[in-house]
Amino acid sequence: MLLALFTSFFKIGLFGFGGGLAILSLIQMEVETNGWMGQQEFVDIVAVSQVTPGPIGINCATYVGYTVGGIWGSILATLAIVLPSLIIMLSICKAYFWLSKRFKGNPYFEQTLRMLRFAVIGLIASAALLLIKPTNFIDSTSWIIFSVVAFLTILPNFVKKKEGNKISNIQYQISNIFSHPILLIVLSGLAGYLIYG
Amino acid sequence: MFWQLFYTYLKIGTFTLGGGYAMLPLIQREVVDRKHWIDEEEFLNMIALAQAAPGLIAVNSAIFIGWRVGGWRGVCGAVLGAVLPSFLIILMIAMVFRDWKEQPAVEAIFKGIRPAVVALIAAPLFKLAKNAIKAKGEGTKGERSLAYNLWPLAISLAAALLIWLLHVNPVWIILATIVLTLSVVAIVNKTNSSINRKS
């Protein structure tokens, strides 16, 4: 069990391009194929990971590790997700000057990075699609919460910051404040308490 | 140096909510503006490298700065500092959460949160896609063309559908993307050079 935990999170650290959100889809797949926990519990962990300080990937690894194998499980999972970074990033640091000169403008390197960005978009989309299930969306209120949160998150992309225009700057500030994930999670938790509690 | 890096990253790790990207401005303030360990340009290079390398961006940046500032000891200090607060806080929550979960009030709260979490994963896609596609006024004319942006978007779509419907492991998607891109660039290079030779 602990060995499976270690190899899973090592794999996640090794192939997790694009940071925390992209890594979620990898963690999700490992959790699912190993049968470690249900979809619902995974979503709860993601929620807790987003409202607590620190990198989401570390939070998720620690939590899943603890659920699967207690304290040792959490230590092992966290260590395993950091280890590939440590090996790869240290090699990059050692070769930093050589790398930055040699690979800047190299079409193989630049195009691979570009395509990985698009692949990561697909990865994140799949993580969201996999979570659209009756366990997470219990009734029409769930869809209302989903739509409102999605709308508020996307909104700042459309509110332009204008220099010298006080009114539109206030709009910009407000749209920025209400797109903050922690505030949105707290507010939807409050909504849940009032509606279902 | 170990303790300085440990303390700096401990502070950053404890007080940033919202994951790796939210940490970057704080890292910049501490490491560039206050401690002057690296300069602005190197900081930008670091972000590029931390994003290009696999793994968590916060951890990758801790490794880079730890190494630049204090070698092996620096790396150990920075990584421990970045990871430890998260680890301890989550461990405490995980220990009590299993008992809390049965409470009807907690269950009601999470009924509200679950759809919000799905939205919080899905909504940033908009910005990511917008940034990945070269828009008007960016890049060369060739880079704004439909063909240049359509194929990568097809990869995004294929990746999402393969994982969602066929449960393909994301690892294969990443590997396939790397192999596919390298071979396409190689073929394009080859045809270009043969055209050049003919003319």
Question: How are the SSEs placed, and which strands pair?
Answer:
The complex is a heterodimer of chains A (197) and B (199).
Chain A lengths: L1 H14 L3 H15 L5 H13 L4 H39 L1 H8 L3 H25 L8 H15 L11 H12 L3 H16 L1
Chain B lengths: L1 H14 L4 H15 L5 H13 L4 H44 L3 H19 L1 H9 L8 H4 L1 H21 L3 H29 L1
Commentary on this structure:
The complex is a heterodimer of chains A (197) and B (199). Chain A has 2 domains: 1-133, no CATH class; 137-197, no CATH class. Chain A is built from 9 helices and no strands. Chain A has helices at 2-15, 19-33, 39-51, 56-94, 96-103, 107-131, 140-154, 166-177, 181-196. Chain A is globular, with a radius of gyration of 20 Å. With 199 residues, chain B is mainly α. Helix content of chain B is 84%, strand content 0%. Chain B contains 9 helices and no strands. The radius of gyration of chain B is 22 Å and the shape is extended. Classes of the chains: A mainly alpha (197), B mainly alpha (199). Chains A and B meet through helix 1, helix 2, helix 3, helix 4 and helix 6 of A and helix 1, helix 2, helix 3, helix 4 and helix 5 of B.
